[in-house]
Write a structure and sequence with these properties.
Largest sheet: 7 strands, mixed
Strand content: 15-25%
Oligomer: single chain
Number of strands: 22
Helix content: 25-40%
Structural class: alpha/beta
Shape: globular
CATH superfamily of the largest domain: Alpha-D-Glucose-1,6-Bisphosphate, subunit A, domain 3
Number of domains: 4
CATH class of the largest domain: Alpha Beta
Radius of gyration: 22 Å
């Protein structure tokens, strides 16, 4: 019997193929997905990993066996699958393990209109059905089998994005894009075609073995090639996408990384210009710059927990126009509240192209504080070490504590957040302050307790 507790995560299915899951399990997931969502039609897509086509087709067979018609859009980015779910009004399933190494694969599932499926919104029920069927096989059904058909959505996806951001007034820009052998190599050429962009491609060949570097731009070592190429070519900007191309990271004309918080603030200002008085969602470890910029542009900032299910739920609840996270996930009301790094990239290109200064100068107004970045500590007792940090600050009258997500402590001109990883024995620390010396002091004080 497969151990589904190892592969069914909070928001998706993810594990090593074929050791932890395979096409026979994918077929059961397809059948369970249809049963839980009650869908008569679904859409599926997959990334470039060697195991993805087979897993995706097995899922489609399982879904069709329960009576659902399946539209396969084939190779796509995760946000392209969200586009199809939104445009067609169908639940969807994307086969990808995002930035994980080559031997992994997974399923990101959504309801019609790209609404997320997580533990509390159907994934627990899907897991329960698959566990029951894994030993006995699929039960018989009276439903007539559904059809499986193919449809290409890349051009429609690109047209939708270009319709949301006007680049006609942009000056010509030289743009280096590192696709990391992931799905950005499939989507970027079509999205940027015809725009005033001199595209310098890096690692656009689709290769799920990731021969050049991991498709995880959150790790600084994976953007060193992009930084060097931006400097070598004298480019205006560099963009790096993760494996399923739903996240986008930015480097400026000097090859220096631009904080995702600064990108969140920049895009928020542009979205508020389109939707005056709108609400913008940000998680509890984005920079103070984000709510400041939102307020300065007449919007209402709403702070939430880390994670796409929380962001998307708050966007739906508040009718927010935009949401951003420190991890370079960017969410748009104009994109069914789903995350799309490509749309954020178009906003940055438009903002850069509408003025004459370099990107470093443009983003400086949105990057106002010093930050530590995320610092991970491996600990045996997450709860105990976190409690020790809380105890150290709880008695002080010069700080405020909140526990919206982990522990956030705010002092005079600084704050830190300490959160436990859901999947690893780690505590994650983020510190921000008005200056680097304060960041270092607060960081060292907290880590001394965490690592004691």
């Amino acid at each position: 019997m497969p151990d589904l507790s190892q592969i069914v995560k909070a928001y998706d299915v993810r594990g090593v193929v074929p050791d932890q899951w395979d096409e026979s399990l994918a077929e059961l997931f397809g059948a369970a997905f249809v049963q839980v969502t009650g869908a008569s039609a679904i859409v599926t897509g997959h990334d470039m990993r060697p195991s993805s086509p087979g897993l995706s087709r097995a899922f489609a067979r399982g879904a069709a066996s329960r009576g659902a018609d399946v539209t396969e859009i084939g190779l796509c980015s995760t946000d392209q699958l969200y586009f199809a779910s939104g445009r067609f009004g169908m639940p969807g399933a994307m086969f990808t393990a995002s930035h994980n190494p080559a031997q992994y694969n997974g399923i990101k599932m959504c309801r019609a209109g790209a609404a997320p499926v997580g533990q509390d919104t159907g994934l627990a029920e899907i897991r329960e059905l698959v566990e029951g069927w894994a030993g006995t096989g699929l039960p018989p059904t009276d439903a007539a089998p559904g059809s499986i058909t193919s449809r290409d959505t890349l051009a429609d996806y690109a047209a939708h994005l270009r319709g949301l951001v006007d680049l006609t007034a942009s000056r010509p820009l030289k743009v280096v894009v590192d696709a990391g052998n992931g799905m950005g190599g499939h989507t970027v050429p079509t999205v940027l075609a015809g725009l005033p962009v001199d595209l310098v491609p890096m690692y656009f060949e689709l290769d799920g073995t990731f021969p050049n570097h991991e498709a995880n731009p959150l790790d600084p070592k994976n953007i060193t090639d992009l930084q060097a190429e931006v400097r070598r070519t004298g480019a205006d900007i560099g963009l790096a996408f993760d494996g399923d191309a739903d996240r986008c990271f930015v480097v400026d004309e000097r090859g220096e990384p631009v904080s995702p918080s600064a990108i969140t603030a920049l895009v928020a200002a542009r979205e508020l210009a389109k939707h005056p008085g709108g609400t913008v969602i940000h998680n509890c470890i984005t920079s103070w710059s984000v709510p400041e910029v939102v307020k300065e542009n007449g919007g209402t900032p709403v702070r939430t927990r880390v994670g796409h299910s929380f962001i998307k739920a708050e966007m739906a609840r508040t009718g927010a126009v935009f949401g951003g996270e420190h991890s370079a996930h960017y969410y748009f009301r104009d994109f069914w509240n789903a995350d799309t790094g490509m749309l954020a990239a178009l906003h940055v290109l438009a903002a850069l192209g509408e003025q004459d200064g370099p990107l470093s100068q443009l983003v400086a107004q949105y990057d106002r504080y010093a930050a530590s970045g995320e610092i991970n500590s491996t600990v045996d007792d997450q709860a105990g070490r976190a409690a020790a940090v809380r105890a150290a600050y709880a008695g002080r009258d010069d700080v405020e504590l909140d526990e919206l997500d982990g522990l956030t402590v705010t002092g005079d001109g600084w704050w830190f957040n300490l959160r436990a990883s859901n999947t690893e024995p780690l505590l994650r620390l983020n510190v921000e302050a008005r200056d680097g010396a304060t960041v270092a002091a607060v960081r060292d004080e907290v880590l001394a307790i965490v690592r004691a």
